[in-house]
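One thing: could you explain this record?
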Amino acid sequence: MNQELDFMFLKYARVWIPDPEEVWKSAELLKDYKAADSVLHLQLEDGKDLEYKLDPKTKNLPHLRNPDILVGENDLTALSYLHEPAVLHNLKVRFIDSKLIYTYCGIVLVAINPYETLPIYGADIINAYSGQNMGDMDPHIFAVAEEAYKQMARDERNQSIIVSGESGAGKTVSAKYAMRYFATVSGSASEANVEEKVLASNPIMEAIGNAKTTRNDNSSRFGKYIEIGFDKRYHIIGANMRTYLLEKSRVVFQADDERNYHIFYQLCAASRFPELKALKLGSANDFHYTKQGRNPAIDGVDDAKEMSTTRQAFTLLGINESYQMGLFQVLAAILHLGNVEVKDRDADSSIIPPNNGHLLTFCELMGVTYQDMSHWLCHKKLKTTSETYIKPVPKLQAINARDALAKHIYAKLFNWIVDHVNKALHTTVKQHSFIGVLDIYGFETFEINSFEQFCINYANEKLQQQFNMHVFKLEQEEYMKEQIPWTLIDFYDNQPCINLIEAKMGVLDLLDEECKMPKGSDDSWAQKLYNTHLKTCALFEKPRMSNKAFIIQHFADKVEYQCEGFLEKNKDTVNEEQIRVLKASKKFDLLVELFQDEEKATSPTGAPTGKRTVLSVKPDKSRQGQASKEHKKTVGLQFRNSLQLLMETLNATTPHYVRCIKPNDYKHAFTFDPKRAVQQLRACGVLETIRISAAGFPSRWTYQEFFSRYRVLMKQKDVLPDKKLTCKNVLEKLVQDPDKYQFGKTKIFFRAGQVAYLEKLRADKLRAACIRIQKTIRCWLARKKYLRMKGAAVTVQRYVRGHQARCLAKFLRRTRAAVVVQKFQRMHVQRSRYRRMQAAALAVQCILRAYMARQRYKALVREHRAVIIQKTVRGWLARQWYKRTLAAVVRLQCCVRRMRARRELKKLKIEARSVEHFKKLNIGMENKIMQLQRRVDEQNKENRLISERLMGLESSHAAEGERLRAELSRLRSAEDDAKSNANRVTTLLEELARLRKELETTRSEKKVIEDWAETYRDEMEQMVAELKEQNGLLKSEKDDLNRLIQEQNLQMTEKMCKAIQEETQQLETDLNEERSRYQNLLTEHLRLEERYDDLKEEITLSMAVPKPGHRRTDSTHSSNESEYTYNSELAESEEGSRGGEDVTRGNLDMSLFLKLQKRVTELEQEKQSLQNELDRREEQFQRARARDDEQHKKARSAELEYESLKRQELESENKKLKHDLGEMRQSLSGSAGATSAAPGSPAYKVLLDQLNASCEELEVRKEEVLILRSQLVSQKEAMQHKDEKQTMTEPVLYVEDVQKMRDAGEITQAYISLKDTNRSPQFLRRPLEVNELVNRLRSPNPDYHRLNEDGELWLVYEGLKETNRLLETQLQAQRRSHENEVEVLRGELQSIKEENNRQQQLLAQNLQLPPEARIEASLQHEITRLTNENLEMLNTDDPKKYREYRLNVLRRMIDLMEQLEKQDRTVRKLKKQLKVFAKKIGELEGGQVENVSPGQTVDEPIRPVNIPRREKDFQGMLEYKKEDELKLVKNLILELKPRGVAVNLIPGLPAYILFMCLRHADYVNDDQKVRTLLTSTINSIKKVLKKRGDDFETVSFWLSNTCRFLHCLKQYSGDEQFMKFNTTKQNDHCLSNFDLAEYRQVLSDLAIQIYQQLIKCMENILQPMIVSGMLEHETIQGVSGVKPTGLRKRTSSIADEGTYTLDSILRQLNSFHSIMCQHGTDPELIKQVVKQQFYIIGAVTLNNLLLRKDMCSWSKGMQIRYNVSQLEEWLRDKNLMNCGAKETLEPLIQAAQLLQVKKKTDEDAEAICSMCNALSTAQIVKVLNLYTPVNEFEERVAVTFIRTIQSRLRDRMESPQLLMDTKMIYPVTFPFNPSSLALETIQIPGSLNLTFLTRV
């Protein structure tokens, strides 16, 4: 270390000294250092003293330690002293103490493997790091990935992430997390195509490229570079993988405690599988290539399970089963080849024993001949210029040739698999940019280093050079940006080492040259190296004790390489004859495919693949030479070329570096080994970064930070208004050397150690101030103490001298009293001794008694607690037994009561047909009798005419009639009372008949009649009295029952209301969850559809590739078709035309086609799985509805049975009345004949009145019977219609079903089943004991309280009410059906009128046409009529009739066309004849007659007849032609500008126009036109959203119009639930021919898609504003206070584009609201959008608050609460307070309150727990941990308080997730909003270019 900072080596300064165990130890200076000192006196941390000797030559002092404020920094370059011990200590503190595995080191991210799974890679963490600057948050791999992604998007430059490190350091995991981050933030997380495939390739690449080593159980033995491609929108579209330097030697050799590649052990573990038995494999210990390491197993790894994972990955990447079995055959053949035994034949030759089992298996698996392979394994071919020799080889060379063949086959297989992985990751979409992830081996040094380590270290030298240059470049850019003087930084340049390896006559060049020598060897190559570089290159050394090794000084360390095996590994030679034998395989196509690249290399003419190459008899020397040169390229040359390509790729990109560190070799979690860490830090270039930074100005402070930190070093006069000038003046005084710092534009740059020096000055200044304060205070305290002591001394002296004088005066008296004093003294001593002994005894007794009492007390407490425990346990057991017993008793009661109820029900059904039942039914006859009385009075008025004719009869019997009339009145009153009882009806009729006979026979019987009347009157009076008494009793009973029922009804109503409210809330929650689940499924379905369309476009593009040399020019017509063709027929025709063209476009890339086809198959399978899930849900729904229907049918069957019984009773009663009336008529006719002479008889008049009344009663009963029968029929028809509808149509929406059930009156019946199936326990009721209830009612003194237990009477009362409602509902249903029939008839009448008008119009038009056009018009009209009839026949149910009808129509059309052709021929023939005749006439007349054209001659007599048409009103329809549909869609949807429409036209105008066109298509009954119009509209809207989906105004416009179109379809659908809001005119405009309920569902799904697109667009606009406006900007100036010192951030990766404020957010919200209002968006929908907006604002703000410590303070809480109040004020201004938006901000409000509340006592903890109910426990604890005091009145939250909070919140049931889900979207609903706008008043503006539309 330089002596520049020797003034810092003062007493108590801390330094770092080397240590053999811990690498570096901390020590403290015991005295100041002086320049002449050679020894430093230090004290270690353990208290030991140490004398540290300095080097006498260099006098380098030890490294100084950094101040404590810098320990644990996120960025190592922020340390004041940049050296190795500081870096190591900082990493150790972060890793061990803080459990942080990531640390920045300039542009490098240092990642230490924790050997433990950490929860820091979830989706919420990804979202939190997305869009953030690199220094705003803690170091993370996601921060590096975000930096690369942002720079790619900002600079439009490709990026690279270079991940390096030792084996086991976590390189692959880091690369995987980086790729996961890209897939998430680029919008591909939902698809996850590339990431899933890359991750699926990991098991494959690990199986074939990873192996167990001594340092790592899963070591990657190759390097890879993955390029992740992005399109113009920076979405992942594909990937490509490049591999480097596979360790092929591991296939044939493994060191101790190592393994071969995993795939071999997986095959051996899976050899028991049936499909792999043909490979003839066994245990791994049976094969030479897998048992050399003597440890074939890895702890915790199941090779058989890993084999299944590998096979699944093969399948996912498109490698089918046949190819997989081929790969396994090749791998098994390699294992068998390693077991082939070669024996010596003699010294120069070898032989393989005949019938070698393993060689036979090898040949069988590879499909080659045994003789050829065994021959060429022991022989080789030598070629000369004239001859070819076959020479045997010795055993050692044969074994080497066998191993070389195995390595060669494995390398080919590895490359083949990599190629297929790349094909699976390839895409046809044009790549705009890419991010490369390089996962490559770090610097390696072992005890024995060979060719592989040489290549690895060579690659790391190249990467380190590129790294150094990049760091140097960034430093230079920073200095130039700040405009400070640039001085050249001396950094280590490893170009000499690279030249030593790759330059001419370098190590690789000499190695290649030696490989070309016929007798080249490793020894001769080593000698060439010594001769060439030993004296010329300082980086090359020769070991002292070896002539077969060399040493190279790399940038990290010296490495000694053993020359043995270099040449063999570099040449990588294999016997070409063996390769030819393998190529000759006829049975194994995969083997030929593995070696086809060699065939390409040997054919330099570049013959196209798939065609035969013509072989010439004469050899082509030039071609052979070129092929040989290409074939014999060495491994070193290939690696150098691939490395050069990699460096060119990296140099063309912006690199980002991740250095993975392995903390220990034992894989212990969070264990740090300093030796291993330092070794890796040196090797990975981290320390070189530190050295480059330290060579310049590593410490950088802004002027404001410097001023705030070092204000204490300034005097008052030094402080100027200009902070920059103030800092300059202070630094010039504090630091004398101007080279130690530089002033930039925004920062001050310091040399290494200067910040520590300033901190020392600051600490000294503060210490000096403290000493001065202490000196003054101590002086004041000492003087005060001295004065007090002086006064006390004087006082003491005075009192002491007085005491002595008094003592002297009393001496004589004391001497005189000595004897007395002694006597009393001795007495006192004895008494004191006695008292002490007594007190001691009492104390011992007290302690003993207290101990015994405590023991007794503890025993009593234990017994008492035991009793309490026993009591509790026994009570719990008793309660459990009681509950079980009670449940059993209740269940038994239910079963018994159900059985009794069923029996009673059967009895009641039997009694229903009995006489007693009729008695009960006729209780209500009193009212009917009263009605009969009123009817009799009315009949009297009618019978006055009859009484005039009977005046003669009345005069003869006047007196007698008066008396009989009085008697009859009394009898009538008695009869009225008697008819209340059904048993007296028949008796009364008999008495009336007898009275008629007595009146008709003779007057003599008057006395008998009087006696009978008196008797009858007495009986009736007695009966009436009894009935009145019973009636009084029944009334009192009824009042009691009504009172009890009302009380129970109130109680039950309260319970039911509470239960219904809870159930309603639960149902609303379930409905929202189901709606959200459905909308998520809809989103997934739409995503799959878009993906399917993209794949379809990719296939179309791949199939449309033209031939080489031919360029096809796209025509305007085809482009128009591709853009504006939407219906299925046009799309199919267009695809067909394209398919026809593609046939002639050349060969198709079949691999791409198969890959895409496989992907389409996967998507279809996924779609099918989703469809199956949807079907399963629908099936569950159908089953549930079927159960409800079954219960409903049961209830309906009971009601129908009851109604049938009632109908039978009424019919029997009618029959009886008919019989009685017949008898009365007979008697009346008889009496009329007998007493015709007395027409005015009163008896006759009474009988007539009774007859008329009976007739009227009979008619009433008939009407009741007819009503009941009609109700039964209508209910049966409704049930049949419902069943048919369920079987013939698909289920529609649940809401529509509910509405239809309400219309049909089925809600009442469903209520019964709803009570039975209700989940809530409050609804459970015990079954009604019918028999018991009847018995109680029949008892003479029923106990009404016991009768009404369990609410049975209330249930009966409710049942009666339900029956009444049912009858009313059925009557209403009949009325509605009648009205519907009337409406249908009116509609038919209207259609007939319209058809009549149309026929008249056609007739008028035909009369105006010429004759030829008339015929054609009539035929067209006939065809149109037939087409309409055909469409009507489509709705018929009989397919046979439909086919016959179609055949008849076709025949008729053919006949008409034939007639048309005949008439055309006839007309042409007649015209020709007419021309000839006219010519002849002209010739004959000699020009006297004017030449008249035949056409005029024919047409002249016919004059057009103008039939005036009556103007009719506009019906709100628009007519268009079929060919104008594309133009309509183009002008109204595709090319419409929302801004102009929203400002100048009425809201929703496009929706109204489309619906009016749809109405006309429905009016003309054209189903094809309706279908194509709706399909084109939906597809066009989707296309507009796909094209301009990021424009909020466009998305809002089409959301409003889609909702309006949906509301129009509902409003004019004809459903009563929607029609009740319409006017009469609007109801007349309803659709009449088609039910578009299914299209309404499609439009609803489209509206959901648009809404979600609107939310995403809105989120993209608001996202950049939220953090800045809600957290960072100070809305209230001066509240936030001073920023905490010592917090320094990295330079922002993106320049500031302007600071957003809260006003920016409010302005944007105003913009959103005004746009939606202008577009006429539904108010309810606006409320839902605002609620989602506020949720996003609250979630993003809270998430950033939880991840930023500098924001968690008291002042920031006040700032947040003020911002939230401004948002609430905005809601009030817009009248949106009731939309639920404020509730979404509740977590943020509570977090802000948590920052401001008091946080000390238990009461505070209780208040926090009750206040923060919207925050989770993790969020509360996180805020408390992050709370940072920024002012003196604030205090940090104590750890005990946080523990108290955690203990209080332990019982909360909540999600453990820390961050809120910012991607969550509330489920949307579209309430029906009818329009009051009349369709006939809408005018189409000319700006829309819709002139082709015709108003109808």
